[in-house]
Amino acid sequence: MRIDSAQKGAFIPRLGKNQYYITSPPARSLDLFNLLNFPSNSKGLSEYKPRLLISTTDAAVQQQSPRSRSPPRKTARLEGDSDYASSVKRSSDKGKGKERTDATDTLSDGVKRLTVINPPDNTRSDSYFNSLLRTIQNGIHSILVPPQRSSSTVSKSRPFIDEDVFNATRMIVVIAGKGQWVYDKMQFEIREATSGVNKTLLSHRDLKSEDWLEELVNATVWFDKCIRLIEALLTYLDLVFVPNKADALHVRELGMQIYRTQILQHDRIRSCIQDAIKGWVNFERRERQKHPGRQTIVTLVRLLAEYSLFNELFLEPYIEATRRFYSEESERLAETLKDDQNSFLKLCAERLQEEERRSSEVLSEFEGDWSEIQKTTERALLDSRLHWLSLGIESAVNAKSMDGLVRMYSLFSRVDGLGVLCGAFKDHVRNVVLTIVNDKERDEEMVDRLLDFKAFIDTALVEAFAGDKQFKNAATDAFATGFRVRKIVPAEKIAKYLDRDMHKDVFRTFYHKALAKRLLLQRSASDDFEKSVLKILKEQYDPEFSMGDNMFRDLALSRDLMTEFQEREARSAEDKFDQPIALLRGLNVMVLEAAFWPFSTKRSGEAVLPTPMAAALARFEEYYKSKHKGRKLNWDHSLGTAALRARFKAGEKELTVSMYQTLVLLLFNDQDEIVFPDIKEQTQIEDGDLRRTLQSLACGPKKVLKKRPQGKDVDDSDVFVFNAEFTDERFRVHINSIQVKETPEETKRTQGAIEMERKSLLDAAIVRIMKAKKTMTHQALINETVDVMKKHFQPDVGMIKTRFEQLIEQEYMRRDDNEPNKYVYVA
């Protein structure tokens, strides 16, 4: 900080104690513009000489604090300096040249020291400082004169006034230490200026709101510029006085506080601001176009943010205007569009887009407040009308309007209304299904109509409802409820539809596989229901479905067989007791005839059972062969189950597991941890089955084993450890095995088996026909074959011709020698 003496000299701190540069301020007639525009032939700054290092004991300098000192600098000065310090120097040079020479000493380090002769007198009277204070006050006053009242004279002399104010502030604040004088005068002038602005704004309230608001914005921008200039001129006040005064504010802070209090937070002005904001936004919403004065609003938003009044003066009235406008519009549209909910929702979507654009353009620096404005708009438009709007889903579904459904889902999700929409969706889907099923006059079209409707609903669930599980479950329940109204009729019509449009043997094959799994894994809801469906399929679809009856017969015979076996073993137990007999008490074997069950018992190897289990199965096999001579049993352990008692730290549990899971768990009776290759070697379970089994035990929700390292996949290097910490609230714990889905290769094998069966069926049918007819023409034989086989599948004519050629080669029939188009049966 530079410290000026009472004379025109100035001392600048530099390096050591009591060592200073002495400089002089610029002459009154010198300004920056003239300095930078010297002629090219002028000596310019080359004539400005640096000052010598001097020593002084000036009391005013010694007392200044380190905070008030400025870094060393040089001050430019013209040759003809007329300031006081220069004149003192010249007079000294004329009369006291010898003294100046004698005043020069040389220190030990070679630095020359000069002693100032006749140092300047720093003392000044109060009248002098009062004069400087008037200069400051007049300067501030001239700055705060509104633009329309400023004279050109003041404007032209502005640089000189600003320099006077700056230097006077330095003298009073730094030298005299009377910063409070300047602070009070500044505060007084700012209050006077803002009072004038207040009166002007209030007197113009009869203007249009947009014109009045523009006047306010212009006044605020003007005041902001004034305060910035005053802040620059009173720099010493900010740097020296304010930091040492507890309750003092910096110049800009004080100015903004006064303007905020007297202008922006004035009751009537605040009311006018809020009314103008509401008028602007209501115009844009009503006319659906930009207001001519929007730029004024953008500037106002920025200014209010600077004064920390954005929320109070803009956001709150803006949101209130939003709520009121859209609530009234919602009520008006609902009255106008009584039966056209989709048009209402379309308008709502457009309004939300408009609000989003307006927020991005007007409130680009306040993105955090966009969501509140959007939420207010959404609630005002939709909240009280969700039930009525949800009825619009009927027309959207009936018209198959995917855009309408997307719009509904999007808007309802914004106001937490998906539950209401889902309920309306479920009701409508159920009503449509009921209508189709109950339309007896169009029974033959029932399945086609249901499939068409189901296809659209499935597409809507993905594209419009984003795969929402709530809507998926609602659609499933709605279809199921709709089917029940006529109970058996939909199933009958679906069977006939399959009869027309599908190959019965393909459907029958895959249906038998699914039925077999349900029965063996005991996942069927009801055996009686399964039998009733089989009866319908057998009577109205394909007699070959009688294979299902054979499945139920095998299960019934197995139950009877096990009852006899257990009774025999019970009688045998009276004579002897051993481990196999103990295991036989819970043994339940299902003896299935391979021809009726769609499973293959051919495996690369057979799992190794523990000795007690193997002995129990051997006892049963011995019993079975004693009753059925010549029969052979092939054990399929992949479908077996077992119940195990396991002891954990939390207590004993009964685990219901598959046979493969049983074989793995029993290994841990002897070891706490086992690596994968050892488990595979000891159980001899096929690799794929073993990996799935270990996943179910160590990676599923019920981890009775731990796997190292952790992960979902089972690698050859994995180690498995018994989990003694396993807990479950139930005593009986069921651990599901991982059921492998049918692979494309398996599906291909199944289809290949179907093709082979078709060939056999065609051959048998053709031979039967020819045996009965003896001779037939080519076309007649084709027609007869198609008619016979349509109960099983719809044969392709090309396949039938191929079978004709095969039967001729096999000598089941031949072509007539005289008529090649006729076939003759060969006995």
From TrEMBL:
GO molecular-function terms, A-Z: ubiquitin protein ligase binding
Spans annotated as Disordered: 56-122
Keywords: Isopeptide bond, Ubl conjugation
Positions with biased composition (Basic and acidic residues): 90-103
Chain ranges of the Cullin family profile domain: 504-698
Keyword field contains Cell membrane: no
Pfam families named among the record's database cross-references: Cullin, Cullin_AB, Cullin_Nedd8
Record GO biological process: ubiquitin-dependent protein catabolic process
Keyword set includes Translocase: no
Family that this chain belongs to: Belongs to the cullin family.
Protein name according to UniProt: Cullin-domain-containing protein
Organism: Sanghuangporus baumii (Phellinus baumii)
Species classification: Eukaryota, Fungi, Dikarya, Basidiomycota, Agaricomycotina
